Amino acid sequence: MAHHAPHAQGPGGGFLPEGRLARALIALGASVLLIVSAVAIWAAGGFEPADAAPAAQPGTRVETRQFTLTPHEAVFTEDPDTGLTVLQVRADLVSNDTKPYYADSIDQSIEVEFPSGKLEATMLTVKYTRHPEGLVSQIQPDMPEEALLVWSLGKPDEKDKDCDDPLARLECEREQAEIDWDAILEDPPDLGPAVAEEREITLTIHQNVYQPGFTDQSERWFAEDDVAAKITLPVSEEG
């Protein structure tokens, strides 16, 4: 036998007032409360992700859809070609893709954080320890390698701090996409004091997804907001 919900018993029989004006006022009040709550949460830093990854130790194996990475150690060393100080992370690396992809594409899924805030990792190049003089252009599928992830270093741009503001983020991304020829032609900054100050770095490794781009339909790897792991490595100066 089918059961039916009881009908309202006239005025006072329901939970909400029947008048349109009263209901509209209640809906308006609820909307205002929701907006105020959202603004308060945003001001406090937003929601904490439910699956936020805890800090992990060196040697932790981190698997993403694009690659599996096991970072072991980090060192500041001198680039033999430029003479500039770079950050070098030794790690086991294997592709999880079925096709080759450009080596520098993994950079978008790896954030490098310096506690002092005085350094910034810029361009990534990949080498293999079995042939450290050569640069790796493409990572082949299902070929485990001991890799050297080498980041160029620079000083953080003060303007980038504004990009944390959601209202300014689109403009920041547009400016970052433009080539700053003046910065390229400038002499590199002296990073010696900042490098000497660092004792550790943190690698935040994001999950990734293979999909078409926003401006074209060619498929490639993109980083996601989801964090697969955060690994803190001691760092020292080589030599």
Structure explained in plain terms:
With about 240 residues, the chain is an alpha+beta fold. It has two domains: about 60-155 and about 190-235, Immunoglobulin-like, CATH 2.60.40; about 160-190, no CATH class. The protein has helices at about 20-45, 170-175, 180-185, 190-195; strands spanning about 55, 60-65, 65-80, 85-95, 100, 110-115, 120-130, 140, 145-155, 200-210, 220-235. The strands form two sheets. Strands 1, 2, 3, 4, 6, 7, 9, 10 and 11 form a nine-stranded mixed β-sheet that branches. Strands 5-8 form a two-stranded antiparallel sheet. The longest helix has 24 residues, at about 20-45. Mean pLDDT is about 80; it is low at about 1-15 and about 35-50.
Can you summarize this structure?
With 239 residues, the chain is α+β, with helices and mostly antiparallel strands. The protein has helices at 20-43, 169-177, 181-185, 192-197; strands spanning 55-56, 62-63, 67-78, 85-95, 101-102, 110-113, 120-128, 138-139, 145-154, 200-212, 219-237.
Key words describing this protein structure:
2 domains, globular, two-stranded antiparallel ribbon, 9-stranded mixed beta sheet, 239 residues, alpha+beta, disordered N terminus
Q: What string gives the helices and strands in order?
A: HEEEEEEEEEHHHEE
- Compute the separation of the termini in Å: 84 Å
Name of the CATH architecture of the largest domain? Sandwich
Figure out the total of helices: 4
Q: What is the 3D shape?
A: globular
User: How many strands in all?
Assistant: 11
Give the averaged pLDDT, no decimals.
80
